[in-house]
């Protein structure tokens, strides 16, 4: 029970108390934290029918934790030298790359209008499941939370497969497109930095979430246009 509480404390902004850092139940991330975070976005969309409000609620439910990682990676990608890029990754100051990444991703996700409020739950389920699988095949370039996540994911990643199967079954075209584009981003950043850390994995969570929402909207519009 303590390890499940740690998952909620780490991946959401819910006030569950000061749980100790424990990744022994990291397999539960898509099903526990994903349902909670996605549920927040879905509930707001159900009430307001506003994609921008729903995505903002989803981000707030995470405590903006991973959005900071996206901004850090955006800044690092603006620097060619690997060592300098890693230094920029740790710099709390925000540069043009980080600002652009955050604004562009928010604009993409906030303009996507899914068919149902349930798509927000599926989106977060998918993003956390994909991050778990990708982390299992990554190598950290430094010690920290990211390396602990990666070590735990290497043993527990198969538990994410049912969540990915649900996302693929509900929206196969969006699943394929979002996965390909997300992996392209991750591999490019991974090679640039020479490995992964918590910031890169957090950025992956944000990118996959926004891309899945956007491709669900696009694929639905295309299907409705054809039929």
Please provide a written account of the structure:
With 227 residues, the protein is mostly helical. The chain is built from 11 helices and no strands. The chain has helices spanning 2-11, 29-48, 51-61, 65-76, 82-90, 96-110, 118-136, 145-156, 161-170, 172-193, 198-226. Helix 4 (65-76) crosses helix 11 (198-226). The longest helix has 29 residues, at 198-226. The protein is globular. The protein starts with a helix and ends with a helix. The mean pLDDT is 86.
Name a few traits of the molecule.
globular; 74% helix; 0% strand; 11 helices; mainly alpha; 227 residues
Query: What's the SSE pattern?
Result: HHHHHHHHHHH
Gross morphology: globular
Distance between the termini: 48 Å
Largest sheet features: none
Low confidence ranges: none
- Strand-pairing-aware structural class: mainly alpha
Helix content: over 70%
Helix segment count? Answer: 11
Total strands: the figure is 0
